[in-house]
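The instructor's notes for this session suggest beginning with a concrete chain rather than abstract definitions. Hand out the sequence below and ask the class to guess, before any prediction is shown, which regions might be ordered.
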Amino acid sequence: MTQDLDSPGPVTSPAASRLLVSTGWAIPGDDLIVPGAADRPVSLDIALNTYASDRLSLGSAIPGLDVVPVIGILRGCPPGRAPSVAAAAADQGLRVVEVTLDSSEPLGQVKAIDRLNRLTVGVGSVLEKEQVHHAVTAGARFVVCPTVDIEVIGACTDLGVPCIPGAATPTEIITAMRAGATAVKVFPAAQLGGPGYISAISAPLRHPPLVPTGGISADQAAEYLAAGASAIGAGMTLFPPAALDTSNLDVVTDLARRWVEAVG
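After discussion, reveal the predicted structure:
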C-alpha cells in the first residue's frame, strides 16, 4: 500500500525507508512512493532484509561509528597538518572525521585523510547542493550540514551518500527525516539543554538517530549516549584550535584517547 496522510511523507532513499521502518512510521511490506522515480514504489521488505536491526544503524551507513560513536570535527586545521592530526587521533582509536568546508583547502584535506586508509572521512558545513558533488569526488563518505536543507539532502540521496543535517527542534528533526536524512545533528546541543534535551525529544520522535554536537566534552559522552544519542560530534573538545595551529599532536592524542575511552 502507499502512504496515508498520517505517515511521515514521501521517502527519498532506501536509507530513509529503513529509518521509517526502524522508528515505527512504516511497517514491513509497505510500498513508499519515491518522488522523481515515476512514482515507483519501493518495498520496505528489501530494506529489512538488508538491515535486520529494529533501529537504523548509523554505523552501517558511516563505517566506524558502530565501533566508536564519535565524529571528530576538524575545523580550521592548516591543510598541511590535517593528515598528521587525523592520524594521531586514529592512533587512539577514532574512526570517523569530518572536515568542515569553511576550513582552508578543505577538499585537499579530505583527499589527504582519505589516503591514510584509516578513517572514514566526510565534510561538514555544507550549505549548497553543488558542494556535495565536489566533496564526494574528493573522497567524502558522508555530508553534514548546519541546517535542514532539502536540496542538499536530495543531492546526497542522488549520490547515495549519507547526510546528517543540523536541527534544533522536533519539527526540524522530523522534516529532515522525511526528506531522507540518514541521521540528524542536534545543534547546538549544550545550549539546547544537553543530555536532558536529547532524552526528552527522543521517545516522542520514536528514537531517531541523533548526533548531538556543540559544546560536548568527553566527560559528558556517556550521558549523551545513555540519553539516546546514536553518536556525538566532537569539535574543539577533540581538536582545539590552538593545538591545530601549533601542530601539538600530544594534545590531540590525549583528547582522542579520552574520547575513545569515554564511549568504549
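Then share the key points. Residues 1-54 form one domain. Residues 89 and 256 are 5 Å apart (CA to CA).
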